Amino acid sequence: QIKRYLHISNINSEKLCWFDKVEPLSSHIRNISKQIYMPGSNVAIDEMMIRFSGRSKHTFRMKNKPISEGYKVISLCEKGYTYTFTYESHVETNQEASSISGLNKTRSIVSYLVIQLSNNNEPVHMLSTIYSIKGNKWKTLKLRRRPRETSSNVVNV
Q1: What sequence ranges are listed for the domain PiggyBac transposable element-derived protein (predicted)?
Q2: Where are the domains of the chain?
Q3: SS3 67
Q4: 19, 43, 85, 130: least CB-packed within 10 angstroms?
Q5: What value, to the nearest 5°, has the Cα angle with vertex 19 and ends 76 and 10?
Q6: For residues 47 and 134, what is the distance between their CA atoms, to the nearest angstrom?
Q7: Are 20 and 27 in contact (CB under 8 A)?
Q8: Which helix (H) or strand (E) holds 139?
Q9: Structure-derived torsion over alpha carbons of residues 97, 31, 77, 10, reported in degrees to the nearest 10
Q10: Rounded CA gap, 111 and 98, in Å?
Q11: Cα dist from 111 to 51, 92, 98, 106, whole Å
Q12: Rounded to 5 degrees, what are φ and ψ at 80?
């Protein structure tokens, strides 16, 4: 019965996104994570599942996974530490990530997370993409679908 009266957000505020009820806690976790940990050059963007078995149109079902049903969170991590993250809904688009125009849903979420890195404007290298961030502007260069293990090609962004 106590959980019914436990609120993280202001119950009188207008809800713009489906995850607004937990946004104050999420923002706090993101800010503290960015203050206490600076990731190196080997970062990964991965999906995490938060177990939920109730009724919600925002949950994902992924059989053959340890958590087969729940909310999906896309995160930028390194060595088991989460630097930043964003929520993904099954039916709604992420307004924060979709503000990046000209990209599909997956690339806009990846770009949104990479932009939050404070890496002194150095390029961020991933399997098939190089992200270059200068101030608030970003540039994406797609190299090839399957990068070779050893390559002497140097790409300047």
Answers
A1: 1-133
A2: 14-119
A3: coil
A4: 130
A5: 125
A6: 26
A7: no
A8: strand 137-142
A9: -60
A10: 10
A11: 26, 18, 10, 9
A12: 85, -5
Q: What is the pLDDT of residues 13-59, one digit of tens each?
A: 776 776 777 788 888 999 999 888 888 777 888 888 888 888 887 88
User: In the structure encoding, which two tokens stand for residue 132, read together?
Assistant: 């270059």
123 and 131 Cβ atoms separated by less than 8 Å = yes
CA-to-CA distance for 139 and 141, rounded, in angstroms? 7
Q: What is the 3 state secondary structure string of 80-116? A: CEEEEEEEECCCCCCHHHHCCCCCCHHHHHHHHHHHC
Please name the residues in contact with 24: beta carbons below 8 A apart, sequence gap of 6 or more: 8, 9
**Residue 103 backbone phi and psi in degrees, to 5:** -125, 155
Cβ–Cβ < 8 Å for 96, 111: no
Share of the chain above pLDDT 90, in %: 2
In tens, the pLDDT along 140-152 reads 555 444 544 444 4
How many CB atoms neighbour CB 76 within 10 A? 23
